[in-house]
């Protein structure tokens, strides 16, 4: 099976009441980690910068315009690998991913932030710190959350 490499950006989006936004993919589609909760984000396109990609992906996946909020790169050490079906060709490939994770703090409570189910993610939840250890999250996110102290 052919291998491809992807640079990925994702966001730890926190509400001002301390909740973290994550979403789930449509299990009927053939994406990566369809049975897990994901940080919103996606692949860097040719010619895009990381922040530009972050803004585009969050708008595409969650309908949120985060361009007016500071985004701090908090981790760029994450890596992952999964089998994936390419949208354009239907080809199955091994996708090797390198993650660039930003923290974005929104100045509203979670229940005041409009989130839409668009693109890849079909379900959203604002997780309290107590809910995060109970959630089935992607393997790269598990490692990231331990590194950042969100999981033990």
What is shown here, in short?
Strand 5 and strand 6 form a beta hairpin.
Protein described:
The chain has 152 residues and is of the alpha+beta class. It has one domain (3-148): Alpha-Beta Complex (Nucleoside Triphosphate Pyrophosphohydrolase), CATH 3.90.79. It has 2 helices and 7 strands, in the order E-E-E-E-H-E-E-E-H. The chain has helices spanning 50-62, 139-148, and strands spanning 3-14, 20-25, 37-38, 41-43, 71-85, 92-105, 121-127. The strands form 2 sheets. A 4-stranded mixed sheet has the order 4-1-6-5, sandwiched between helices. A hairpin with a 6-residue loop joins strand 5 and strand 6 (92-105). The radius of gyration is 15 Å and the shape is globular. The mean pLDDT is 91.
What's the layout of helices and strands?
Elements: E1 3-14, E2 20-25, E3 37-38, E4 41-43, H1 50-62, E5 71-85, E6 92-105, E7 121-127, H2 139-148
Parallel strand pairs: 1-6
Antiparallel strand pairs: 1-4, 2-3, 2-7, 5-6
In round numbers, the mean pLDDT is 91
The CATH homologous superfamily is termed Nucleoside Triphosphate Pyrophosphohydrolase
Give the helices and strands as they follow along the chain.
EEEEHEEEH
Count of helices?
2
Structural class by SSE content: alpha+beta
Write the CATH architecture name: Alpha-Beta Complex
The number of E-state strands comes to 7
* Spatial order of strands in the largest sheet: 4-1-6-5
Would you identify the regions where 5 or more consecutive residues have pLDDT less than 50? Answer: none
Q: Approximately how much helix is present in the residues?
A: 10-25%
CATH topology: Nucleoside Triphosphate Pyrophosphohydrolase
Largest sheet: 4 strands, mixed
Percent of sequence in beta strands: 35-45%
CATH class: Alpha Beta
Radius of gyration, Cα only, in angstroms?
A: 15 Å
Distance between the termini: 35 Å
Shape: globular
